Amino acid sequence: MVAHGINPSQKKQEEKLKQKDPTTVKTFAKRWLTDIVEKSNRDPCNVTRIIEKDIIRIIGKLELEELTTAHIQVVLDRIKQRGSDHVELLTRNVLKRMLAYAISRGIIFNNPAAAIEARYIAQATSRDVALTAEEIGILLRGIYTSNMNRRHKLALHLLIFCMVRKSELIEATWSEVNFNTLEWRIPGERMKMDNPHIVPLSKQALAMFEELKFLAGDSPYVFPSRNDHRRPISKTTLNCAVRTLDLNVRDFVIHDFRRTASTLLHEQGYNSDWVEKCLAHKIGGVRGVYNCAEYLNQRREMLQSWADFVDAQIEEGRKVVIGKFGKAYEINN
């Protein structure tokens, strides 16, 4: 061998590699997650969700060496059909990075994802999503049947009920919640528009806050961090929790909960000023002069009706205990 310019040690190593079982996309994706993503990415759940929901599900059984640009395009086309250009672009980027790592390990010799240029995919842009009533039911049933932390389940449910921004909820303190007046008063310094905001609590929301009070122990925060009860949970915690869900609904972000509530309440014929006030939006024109009244009684009735409506969507075809928050906790045998 040496006489013919062949390194026996190298030849032996190459033969050994050939004898190994073929590496599938699924096997290597999980290896990449463990070796690279989880060690270098502070928030790996988004990458994990993309790999498990789309990549492994569609092309996971293929051998890595057999993977072509056409296979990858099938994955991207499936995502496009869901109406999510943003996720399509993210998935292409994830595959490109994963396959680059496979090249560095000597498993493959070219990157089929690199052939799909980003300009051929619609650029990631914000898109307005208002979930349907049916999708609300699917979402909440999925949340409560998942292994998500109980407090995070309640947080997502409260975001739908209360129509507040995510930061306004996760940074809430117990000094803001009044169990006697059934109100949550958010100080101006925590609001986007710097104006104090009152959230009338439905009976369901009140019961959730009561449970959260027990779960929070002696923390001043409604949603204390697991590592330090003197601080609230991270701003990315709920996003990460949502990304782990595998649901038959359109791709959405948490902020879409506010748009969803607004859309459905308007469809049900509620006064636009009441809805806008629940969203803590400034009411323009002459109507804004009367904003000091806050439509509190009207909003209280509307938010109770909204909570009952959401309950009804959860009830539709479910068999899951979510807690004693109204009709939703009653199980049909």
Protein architecture, described:
The protein is mainly α and 333 residues long. It folds into 2 domains: 21-120, DNA polymerase, domain 1 (Orthogonal Bundle); 133-329, hpI Integrase, Chain A, CATH 1.10.443. It is built from 13 helices and 3 strands. The protein has helices spanning 8-19, 25-40, 45-59, 69-81, 85-104, 133-145, 150-162, 166-170, 203-216, 237-243, 256-267, 272-278, 296-315, and strands at residues 177-178, 183-186, 197-200. Strands 1-2-3 form a 3-stranded antiparallel beta sheet. α3 crosses α5 (85-104), α6 (133-145) crosses α13 and α7 (150-162) packs antiparallel against α9 (203-216). It is elongated and about 80 Å long. It starts with 7 loop residues before the first helix and ends in an 18-residue tail after the last helix.
